[in-house]
Amino acid sequence: MPLDVELGKVMLQLITSRYDDRHWRKRIEKTLGLPQSGVGDSSQQQIFMYLKLGLKAYKSRRADPDSWIVGGYATKEIIERAKFQPQVVGPDITKDEVAFLGIDPGKEIDEAWWDEMLVSWFDVPEEEQPADLAEESEADSESASSAKAENV
């Protein structure tokens, strides 16, 4: 289940406020490496993609993994550009939607919060099956495994 609006806002605040802190730099880079499908709100997803693409470091055409320029003047420039020209993020993004960028989310946001955020980023709720369908799928898998055992 993707991040809700509140979690997405705190995640974006974390990325845009703690980028100069060496303690958080690797975590921010890992967050930027995540797929945008983990952000539920469409405007926050646009902001996340803007940051992800804007902070992507130049790399050659080799098969290098993606890397980001997190920290320093370039990161500050990307954030300030989004705050003063929200249309560079997306055509329907307003100043109110990017006003929170660069504001620290607070001391309660720590490593444990970050770990929980990652879990909710990738947490996909299982679809509940009716009881009779669940029993049929279990019976099918048992018969398939016994057939494999007989062939061996």
What does this molecule look like?
The chain is an all-alpha fold. The chain has one domain (5-151). 57% of the residues lie in helices and 0% in strands. The protein contains seven helices and no strands. The protein has helices spanning 5-17, 22-32, 42-54, 73-84, 95-98, 111-122, 131-151. Residues 129-134 have low confidence and may be disordered.
What is the topological layout?
Layout: H1 5-17, H2 22-32, H3 42-54, H4 73-84, H5 95-98, H6 111-122, H7 131-151
Helix pairs in contact: 3-4
The string of secondary-structure elements, in order, is HHHHHHH
Strand content: under 5%
Q: Which outline best applies?
A: globular
Structural class: mainly alpha
Describe the oligomeric state of these chains in a short phrase.
single chain
Indicate how many domains the architecture comprises: 1
Helix content: 55-70%
Stretches where pLDDT falls below 50 for ≥5 residues?
Answer: 129-134
Tell me the major beta sheet.
Answer: none
| Alpha-carbon Rg, integer | 21 Å
Mean pLDDT value: 81
Count every helix, treating DSSP H or I runs of 4 or more residues as helices: 7
Ends: how far apart? 41 Å
Number of strands: 0
Question: What's a concise summary of this model?
Answer:
The protein has 152 residues and is mainly alpha-helical.
